[in-house]
Automatic annotation (TrEMBL):
Taxonomic superkingdom: Bacteria
InterPro entries associated with the record: DUF924, TPR-like_helical_dom_sf
Pfam families reported for this sequence: DUF924
Descriptive protein name: DUF924 domain-containing protein
Amino acid sequence: MQPWEPLLDWWFGPSTSAVDVAAARNTLWFGKRDEQDAEARERFGDLVEQALAGGLQEWSADSRGWLANILLLDQLPRMIYRDTPLAFAGDALAQPLAEEGVTLGWDRQLSPLQRVFIYLVFEHAENLPQQRRSMQLFGDLHASAADGELKLFAGFLDYAERHLRIIERFARFPHRNETLGRVSTDAELRFLLEPGSRF
């Protein structure tokens, strides 16, 4: 067994249907539960620390290892270090890693649902060109989705567009300001009172 397989098994589960996997794992991926964060910390905290320190680069010689490395840099810190600046500490490493792999076509070796978690790296960026890259990638993913999966991938595309609109408007995500010690503008404070302003 490759060292990244336990993480991928935990993240995606046993099902092969994208709709079934998403239904079973949605709360893990996008929910905020203390017990999930604790499990991530207990099972994979050491690997996250290694990845954040620049280790595990050898994993990215394999498309599935590359995916796992992206999860360790982009997704798991948001769980393990939730509501602290460290939640975003892996973004600067994840972004060039994701870009390199997409440029080389490694994402095409993954399932469509696995590719979502590569493209989320661009969606998380406080950077307009990367947000536009996210829209293009999620748009392509939606365009190639099977009939039974169109609604699922349309949802991912919708979230990508919502992220893009925020960066177009503010050049950053206002909901991160408090965590990162940034001063919010009056416009951002008004925006944060709106439904759907936080992810």
